[in-house]
Amino acid sequence: MARILDVGCGRKKLTGSIGIDMSPAGQADVLCDWTRTLPFADSVFDQVRLIHVIEEVDNIFSVLAEVHRVARPGASVVIVTPHYTDHASYCSPAHRWHLSSFSFWFFSDKPREYDYYAPADYREVRVRVEMLKLWKILGLQFLINHFRPFRRFWEYYLSFMIRGKAIQWELEVRK
Amino acid sequence: MRILDVGCGPQKYPGSLGIDMNPNTAADVLCHLDKGHLPFRDNSFDAVRALHLIEHVSDVLATMGELHRVTRPGGTILIVTPHYTDYTSFRDPTHRWHLNTESFLYFYPGGMHGRDMWYTDVRMREKHLQVKLLRIWRFMGFELLVNHARWFRRFWEQYLSFVIRGKVMEFTFEVIK
User: How many helices (H) and strands (E) does chain B have?
Assistant: First the structure.
C-alpha cells in the first residue's frame, strides 16, 4: 500500500494518508510545526501532498527540501495553490506567496547555479490550471492545459483578464 | 470614548492615544508591533484605528489578535489598507501583504466556507466596508455598485478587478468576544 503524507491536512485529510498539521482542530495524526522540519526518516513516502498550504509558509525552499528528503526517489509530490490572478490568492491574511503556473520551474529545469537556493531536485510531471467557469466553458482552460506555448502566452498576455483559479502540480522526486 | 490609533504617524486621530514605533511621530507610546504585545490591558479601548498599517506587519493574524484583545466587546476596529489591484499596494517595498475585500472573512463567525477558521480565536463582524475606486470608475458608477450590491462586489473581485482596479478599502469591524 502506498504511503502518503498529507502536509497541512486540516479537516480534509486524504483517506488512508498520514496527516500532519499545526492545529489539533483538524484530522492530523502528527502535530508539529511542519514548516520547519518533518519528523520522519529519509525516503519513506510514496506520495506527499501539499494542498493549499505552500502559499502560507515562510520559506518555500526549505519546505520543499524537507519534502524531498522524506519522499523516496521517484515519489510524486502534489501541490495545489491559487494562481496569483485569482481573488482567492488575496482572500486570506495568511497567504504570503502569489504564484504562477511557472513558479516551480525553479525546482525542475533549473540552471546549476540555482542549486544554491533550491538544492532539492524535482521533475515537473504535470501542471494543470483551473479557470473560472466562464473561461472553462469558452475552452480556454482546455487550451492552457493542453498546449504549453499557449499557457505561456496566457501567463504573459491574458491572465489579468482571463484569470486563473487554482494550479495543480505533480512533481517527481529525483535523488 | 477611548480611542487607540495604532501606527498613528505624524497625523494622529484627534483625541486618541497614538502608538508608533517611530519617535518622529505624534505617538504617545512607542512600541514595535512585530516584537511583542501591545502595552495595554484587555478591553481597554472602545475604538481602535489602524490606517495603512496591516499591510506592513510581519504576521496579520498575531496583529489582529492584539487589536482584538485590547478592544472591548462590541467595540470597533477600523482597518484602512490598499486593495491589491491598486498600484500603491506594490509601490512600497515594506508592504508584505496584498489584500482584497474578503481577506478578513477569516475572522468572521462562519466566514470560511460556512465554518469558523481554526487558526485564530479572533472573532469580529463586518459592520461596514467602503471600497474606493479610481475617479474614472467612480464617475461611471462602478464604486456605487461595488459598495451597494454584494453580488456585484464578488463578480468585480473575480472577473473585473484587474481592469477596473480598486484603490483603498475601509473596513469597520465590531469585536465579538
Answer: 5, 7
Question: What grid cell was written down for A140?
Answer: 480556454
A64 closest CA partner among A1, A110, A3 = A110
- Count the domains in chain B: 1
Residue B164 inside a domain? The answer is no
- Cβ count near B43 (within 10 Å): 15
Tell me which architecture the domain covering A4-131+167-173 has in CATH: 3-Layer(aba) Sandwich (3.40)
CB contact under 8 A, A91 and B158: no
Residue of A nearest to B165 (CA): A160
pLDDT of residue A134: 93
Cβ contacts of A132 on chain B, cutoff 8 Å:
158-159
Task: Give the pLDDT band (50/70/90) at residue B120.
Answer: confident
Q: What's the grid cell of residue A126? A: 504535470
Nearest Cα residue in chain A from B119: A23
Quick: pLDDT tens for B46-77.
Answer: 999 999 999 999 999 999 999 999 999 999 99
- Averaged pLDDT, groups of 10, chain A, 175 residues long: 94 94 92 95 98 95 95 97 96 93 82 76 94 95 96 95 96 93
Residue B106 domain-assigned?
yes
Instruction: Look up the CATH number of the domain holding residue B45.
Output: 3.40.50.150
Domains of chain A by residue range: 4-131+167-173
